[in-house]
Design brief:
alpha+beta; At1g16640 B3 domain; globular; DNA binding
Length: about 170
């Protein structure tokens, strides 16, 4: 006999408990707070929950394809790459690892102040950590101001030794 409904006979006489999901139990009832440096902080998400989305594989692939098409039409001599955003890049810890080979070929191995410039010419100061091949301080502001989401793809073009033009 295969169970077909919640009213199907069970071996146990114990009442069936509905299982809540992690999201229902822990996320939806919590008020949104900004990240705190306090050890007692329980939330590290910097955007309201209703703005957080999880990209499907199809959405992620489409965004990546669009960014690569944009890059191919850019016709620039500057070194560049496309980076697909994930949750830790845009919602919580705000660490952005860059492609290691790109960093090895075009960036120094030490810490460096870098400028990120968006399509409108607005500049964001950030810290590049060469030993870890990634962007730290300042990346958070860029990601939040541009409301980058999981699955978005960003084009990075190194137009000067310490300046990325972003699209």
């Amino acid at each position: 006999m295969t169970p077909t409904s919640p009213d199907t006979l069970r071996r146990s006489s114990r009442a069936r408990n509905l299982i809540s999901t992690y999201q229902e139990e822990f996320i939806e009832d919590r008020p949104m707070r900004k990240r705190s440096r306090s050890i007692s902080s329980t939330s590290y998400i910097a955007r309201p929950l209703d703005e957080i989305r999880v990209a499907t594989n199809r959405e992620r692939a489409f965004a990546l394809e669009c960014a690569k098409n944009f890059l191919s039409k850019l016709q620039s001599e500057h070194p560049s790459f496309v980076k697909s955003m994930v949750r830790s890049h845009v919602y919580s810890c705000f660490w952005l690892g860059l492609p290691r080979q790109f960093c090895k070929d075009h960036l120094p191995s030490n810490e460096l102040k870098m400028v990120l410039e968006d399509e409108n010419g607005v500049e964001y100061d950030t810290i590049y950590i060469g030993s870890r091949a990634g962007l730290s301080g300042g990346w958070r502001g860029f990601a939040l101001d541009h409301k980058l989401d999981d699955g978005d793809a960003v084009v990075f073009e190194l137009v000067e030794p310490a300046r990325f033009k972003m699209a």
